[in-house]
Design a protein that fits this description.
56% of the residues lie in helices and 13% in strands. The chain is of the alpha/beta class. It folds into 3 domains: 153 residues, Glutamyl-tRNA reductase, N-terminal domain (Beta Polymerase, domain 2), CATH 3.30.460; 144 residues, 3-Layer(aba) Sandwich (Rossmann fold); 66 residues. Strands 7-6-5-8-9-10 form a 6-stranded parallel sheet. A 4-stranded antiparallel sheet has the order 2-3-1-4, with helices on both faces. Helix 6 packs antiparallel against helix 7.
């Protein structure tokens, strides 16, 4: 049985191709069964995200890559040759290593990002529910999750923010001991603000207000996080309640001035406000940073944090690679041990069947009046001949073919010492 990881990701294919090979969650179960049948797979799981589509397989078909690509192309209406050019395939230990790197975020667009592990666990769950993950892939997934946990706990791979949105929220956590008691005001409703809202929610912030020039867009973002939506003109009224303010709009002029912030601080009785201006041009007048009780950071401040954190993650990634390599070697060693167990089980069964046959003969001889001594001698002789007949035939053939390695292996297995034929 061989392990195969076949896929397409952000390094090998443009977004136009990646989005076409993505699998809708509601169609994934059916796709799994189709892939298994078309490529004659023993087990299969599919990971599908915005940056990658990968199939993890256990198969006896060593030409499985072509069959999988043909199925993938037919399923998504893509030319198989195009898929061939932008795909990759890893077998056995390389497949194990790749899967572990993916789970740890080392193969991600953002180094060390944690979401991929949850997506991989989801892929495992879907395939398991469909009965398409059994012994081989089940063992691999569980080992992968263990290695990913070790990487998260033993390295700093996920401790340093490397996105603007995440860096902004991470800075807020340094200012406020408990974000669950903080109120956030977000100015803008684009992708960055949406990411900021998502990170704030995960950090424990319960009250989020989104202010935008277009109220409908603000509502769309706010509703996703159980927040409120207001227009830009309502910011002065909302500002006194805000502990955290993060702005990211496309406005060419500042939206928030020093005067409005001074007025808000008086109403807050000078409780501090944490502000991050991600916009270029800036949404918050630079003079706001001169006010006491205001912690104002710009996108340049965040970039410095991100660059430093990127270096920290790269250092952590080197430690993570060591953990992954050890995990891969350990997995393959245990796999070989299990394969040996199967062989040993067959060997023992064969020996037991032979012993039972010879014992049956011995019992019949005793019943026919043969002496115990004669029966035991025949039993020992017959058992020895039966157990050694096939190995003897194969060793003679190996010797005639010059396969000394097999002879040496038998000597090692049975701890045999060849006679010393040198002159005395």
């Amino acid at each position: 049985m061989a392990l195969l990881a076949l896929g397409i990701n952000h390094k090998t294919a443009p977004v136009e191709v990646r989005e076409r090979v993505a699998f809708a969650p509601e169609k994934l179960a059916q796709a799994l069964h189709e892939a298994q049948q078309h490529a004659r797979l023993s087990e299969v799981a599919i990971l599908s995200t915005c940056n990658r589509t990968e199939l993890y397989c256990s198969t006896t078909e060593l030409e499985g890559t072509r069959a999988l690509l043909e199925w993938l192309g037919r399923y998504h209406g893509l030319d198989v040759e195009e898929l061939q050019r932008c795909s990759y395939a890893y077998w056995d230990d390389a497949a194990v290593r790749h899967m572990m790197r993916v789970a740890c975020g080392l193969d991600s667009l953002v180094l060390g990002e944690p979401q991929i592990l949850g997506q991989l666990k989801s892929a495992f769950s879907v395939s398991q529910a469909e009965g398409l993950v059994s012994v081989e892939l089940g063992r691999l997934f569980r080992s992968t999750f263990t290695v990913a946990k070790d990487v998260r706990t033993q390295t700093a791979i996920g401790q340093n923010p490397v996105s603007v949105a995440y860096a902004a929220v991470s800075l807020a956590q340094h200012i406020f001991a408990d974000l669950g008691k903080s109120r956030a005001l977000l100015i803008g409703a684009g992708e960055t603000i949406e990411l900021v809202a998502r990170h704030l929610k995960r950090a424990g912030v319960q009250q989020i207000t989104v202010a935008n020039r277009t109220l409908a867009r603000a509502l769309a973002v706010a509703e996703e996080f159980n927040g409120r939506a207001i227009e830009l003109s309502q910011i002065p009224e909302e500002l006194p309640q805000a502990d955290i303010l993060i702005a990211s709009t496309a406005s060419q002029l500042p939206i928030l001035g020093k005067g409005a912030v001074e007025a808000a601080l008086k109403k807050r009785k000078h409780r501090p406000i944490f502000m991050v201006d991600i916009a270029v041009p800036r949404d918050i007048e630079p003079q706001v940073g001169e006010l006491d009780d205001v912690y104002l950071y710009t996108v340049d401040d965040l970039r410095e944090v991100i660059e430093e954190n990127q270096r920290e993650r790269q250092n952590a990634a080197r430690d993570a690679e060591g953990i992954i390599e050890a995990g891969t070697l350990d997995y393959m060693r245990r796999l070989r041990e299990l394969e040996a167990v199967d062989t040993l089980t067959l060997l023992r069964q064969n020996a037991q069947e032979t012993a039972a046959q010879e014992l049956d003969k011995a019992m019949r001889m005793l019943a026919n009046g043969k002496s115990a001594e004669e029966v035991l001698q025949r039993l020992a002789h017959g058992l020895t001949n039966k157990l050694l007949h096939q190995p003897t035939v194969q060793l003679r053939r190996a010797s005639a073919e010059g396969r000394d390695d097999l002879l040496q292996l038998v000597q090692e297995l049975y701890q045999l010492t060849p006679p010393d034929n040198s002159d005395s």
